[in-house]
Inverse folding.
C-alpha cells in the first residue's frame, strides 16, 4: 500500500504578532468616573451672605457686578479711545483675580406691562382700550423674543470684607468711563443658573 504523505507541521515556534499579544494581555479598563448627579455637587457655591455675596467651596467669596453697557458706535474716535484706554488702565491697576462674563438676558418689560394693565382696567374708551391692549402685546412679545447682551464682572476675595474693598477699588478705577452696577439677588441666582445650565432659557416664554 502506498503510504500517505504527511502534511508539513506548522512551525509553532514562530513569534506571534506583538500587537495581538498586547491586545490579549491588555488590562481591564478602569471604571469610568462617577457622574455627579446633583447641581449642588457641580456648583462651587455653598451659601449666600446677607449682603448677597456668594460663599464658595474653597472658602473664598464672590461678588457679581454688572458692567454698564455703552453704545460705542455713537461715539466719535476720541470718545472711543477714552473708553478703551480707561478699560486698559483698569486691567493694569486692578491686580487681583477677576472674571468677565457675557450672557444673553431676556428683555425685561414687567414694570411697563403692569402700568399698561392698570391703564386698561381704568380705561372707559373702547378705542383707547384697543390701543392699550396692542401695546401690552408688543411689550409681552419683546420680553418673550428679545434678549439683551449683558456683561458681568466677578470679583473674588478671601473674606467678605476683602471682596467689598476690592469692589470699591474696581469701581474707583473704572468710574471715569464705565459704571459698575449692583446686581440684585434674584438676578445673581438666574445668572448662576444659566452658567451651569448652558441650554436653559431665562425668563418666561408664555405671553398669551
Amino acid at each position: 500500500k502506498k503510504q500517505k504523505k504527511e502534511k508539513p507541521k506548522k512551525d509553532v515556534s514562530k513569534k506571534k504578532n506583538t500587537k495581538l499579544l498586547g491586545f490579549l494581555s491588555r488590562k481591564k479598563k478602569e471604571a469610568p468616573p462617577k457622574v455627579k448627579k446633583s447641581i449642588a455637587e457641580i456648583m462651587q457655591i455653598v451659601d449666600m451672605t446677607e449682603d448677597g455675596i456668594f460663599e464658595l467651596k474653597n472658602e473664598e467669596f464672590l461678588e457679581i457686578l454688572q458692567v454698564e453697557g455703552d453704545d460705542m458706535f455713537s461715539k466719535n474716535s476720541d470718545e472711543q479711545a477714552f473708553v478703551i484706554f480707561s478699560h486698559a488702565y483698569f486691567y493694569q491697576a486692578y491686580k487681583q483675580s477677576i472674571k468677565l462674563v457675557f450672557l444673553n438676558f431676556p428683555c425685561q418689560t414687567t414694570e411697563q406691562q403692569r402700568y399698561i394693565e392698570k391703564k386698561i382696567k381704568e380705561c372707559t374708551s373702547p378705542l383707547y382700550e384697543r390701543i392699550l391692549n396692542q401695546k401690552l402685546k408688543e411689550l409681552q412679545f419683546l420680553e418673550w423674543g428679545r434678549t439683551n447682551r449683558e456683561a458681568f464682572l466677578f470679583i473674588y476675595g478671601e473674606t467678605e470684607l476683602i471682596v467689598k474693598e476690592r469692589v470699591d477699588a474696581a469701581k474707583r478705577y473704572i468710574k471715569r468711563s464705565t459704571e459698575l452696577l449692583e446686581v440684585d439677588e434674584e438676578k445673581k441666582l438666574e445668572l448662576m443658573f444659566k452658567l451651569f445650565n448652558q441650554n436653559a432659557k431665562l425668563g418666561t416664554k408664555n405671553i398669551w
